[in-house]
Amino acid sequence: MADEDIYTKDGTTDFRNDPAVKKKTGTWKACPYILGNECCERLAYYGINTNLVNYLKFQLNQRNVVAVNNVTNWSGTCYVTPLLGAFLADAYLGRYWTIAGFSTIYVFGMTLLTLSASVHGLKPECNAAQNGCHPTGLQTAVFFVGLYLISLGTGGIKPCVSSFGADQFDDSDETEKKRKSSFFNWFYFSINIGALVASSVLVWVQTNVGWGWGFGVPAVAMGIAIMSFFSGTRLYRNQRPGGSPLTRICQVIVASLRKFRVEVPADKSLLYETADSESAVTGSRKLDHTKHLSFFDKAAVEETNANADAIKGSVDSCWRLCTVTQVEELKSIIRLLPIWATGIVFSAVYSQMGTLFVLQGNTMDLRITHSFQIPSASLSLFDTISVIFWVPIYDRFVVPFARKLTGHKSGFTQLQRIAIGLVISVVAMLVAGTLELLRLRMVRKHDYYELKHIPMSIFWQVPQYFIIGCAEVFTFIGQLEFFYEQAPDAMRSLCSALSLTTAALGNYLSTMIVNVVTDLSTKGGKPGWIPDNLNYGHLHYFFWLLAGLSLLNLGVYLQVARRYTYKRTVVNSL
């Protein structure tokens, strides 16, 4: 009994690979190092991402549509590479070593990017008299190699850091489990502290001091992120890698197909599971049987023919007979997919802050005083301020109030929280479209078509940024917690990566919509919805199109969420 009070019950280990001691490891003792790492890493990422569309347009001399598509494609790739990092973390390396290894690649990419913007020969030659910058093929190639090395590096960090932080709280301890929900709120808060510095200070440095310094500071921030992470090594709790999750998934599918004609017994206790209190999957608790997707239960049906014992003990046995926990792992992933798919449109809405919101801002009055102008990309700091404002409000006030109304320990269920954010995202696009309509009316009324900055303050964009920030607090944080909680223990990095791919596909969806809209709206020699000079365009149509898609997506989400079945872990009776 004494050992049970000393050590964690979720199978985590310390840095020596010994069972983790509760009082010496994990909880909020370890989290400051993880949150510090995330804050600095996000400062580095957003230091590149926030103003990237302007670098591509003005330094690499790309047109609006090309620059927007390059930003969304790169951002999308940053959210696809986490699948690789998550697989390595769950299967072989563990989250700690995956973060450490991919951080090195990240720093190398940041260094190359800084050199491409500061070293003579790698830096594009710019001359106002010759109509801007004229980069060579080599200069463009070096820049994009550095950029995509960053996307690879972030692939090992993004899916692991939030899960690694949540691993510091023992799921088997109710007191620690309650603190975990608060961790996700403050994790997202730390992300936005980094983003705040990036969208204000770094964007100003890039615009007014130079791109070499503008990329160099994020590179230094990434170095600080690594130091912060390693500083907490002795305090961390580590989940053991459980072997290839893809192999286990394939084993269940193959075993189910092999026993296609086998009937699943009505008594589910007859399905195969190990007799031990621990799961056969390393680093995972046993999962209770659920009635949905019953076809896969065939994989856990024990054969009764004469060769059954020989098969059970053979090398091939894992591809013929799987435990209930293995089957439930696959079911959990399948159940997550519809919820996952509905996050794609939300991510497409979110991606507009780094592309079309910036280009819209470029056409407006950037002056704060007669001598000081704010870069249009810096307006994203109001999204960040919104998140920083709403996270503590949500954690300290909304949750206790909602708890009284709903009786749920977290105030709202994770699925309810996501739904509220989806509703708010529709409002954000309607507001952005309305602002653009008002801007274009001013252009037409006063014939401002060729005016670079019309006399409408860029601060009219603040509401659309602030509303998206509010939507993030509900949807993105809800997704983070939902995918961690509903993932099988040994697949948590993979499921975190799966949630991140909605951002990738949202960026790719935005690229596709921009291309389709451009092709259709420019027929017959028309300027189209998103021309290089937005004063001749109809950008409000694009925003309203996204609002319509978001509303349709919300309807689908509500139907999917209503039918969702939560995973159940087996509680061992002592």
Description:
This protein has helices at residues 2-6, 27-49, 52-58, 64-78, 82-118, 137-166, 174-208, 211-231, 245-258, 308-312, 324-341, 343-350, 356-362, 381-406, 414-446, 462-486, 492-521, 539-562, and strands spanning 126-127, 132-133. The protein is mainly α. Strands 1-2 form a two-stranded antiparallel ribbon. Helix 5 crosses helix 17 (492-521) and helix 12 packs antiparallel against helix 18. The longest helix is centred in the first third of the chain and has 37 residues, at 82-118. The radius of gyration is 26 Å and the shape is globular. The termini are close together.
The end-to-end span amounts to 10 Å
Put simply, the count of helices is: 18
Strand order of the largest sheet: 1-2
Q: What series of H and E elements makes up the topology? A: HHHHHEEHHHHHHHHHHHHH
For the residues shown, what is the average pLDDT?
A: 86
Number of beta-strand segments: 2
Range of helix content: 55-70%
Task: Supply Rg.
Answer: 26 Å
Largest sheet: 2 strands, antiparallel
* Helix-strand makeup class: mainly alpha
**How would the global form be characterised?**
globular
Low-confidence stretches: none
Strand content: under 5%
